[in-house]
Amino acid sequence: MKIMIVDDEQDVQFLFRQKFRRELKENQIKLYFAFSAEEALERLQSKLINCPILIVTDINMPGMNGLEMLKIIKDNYPNLKVIIITAYDDEHNYLTAKKYGADDYITKPIEFDKLKEKILKL
């Protein structure tokens, strides 16, 4: 399963690689990283990555935020699954994410065991 993680914080790459170490080693998943919504959309549009099955994105990023990116993704790639992650448990963002077609909405700190369960069920 190909997963693109979209977050402006560079340290998420180490964190996700560490938390999914076993799944990576067993080739259950392949992780890609984009450090902005614009970079993620560019990678999807230019086919730099064979279309991932899942995008896991933060909401708050400089430039385009994760909700704006979600809307574009669901308009152009309706079968692509998207999980929104946020540090703020905000009802407005939750409702917007659901309206735009988010497949799940998770608040930080991320409970990686639960996230793994959700990902591996897709």
UniProtKB/TrEMBL annotation:
SUPFAM superfamilies: CheY-like (SSF52172). InterPro entries: Bact_response_regulator (IPR050595), CheY-like_superfamily (IPR011006), Sig_transdc_resp-reg_receiver (IPR001789). The modification 4-aspartylphosphate is found at D58. Keywords: Phosphoprotein. Residues 2-122 form the Response regulatory domain. GO terms for biological process: phosphorelay signal transduction system. PROSITE patterns: RESPONSE_REGULATORY. The keyword Transmembrane helix does not apply. This is Response regulator. It comes from Komarekiella delphini-convector SJRDD-AB1.
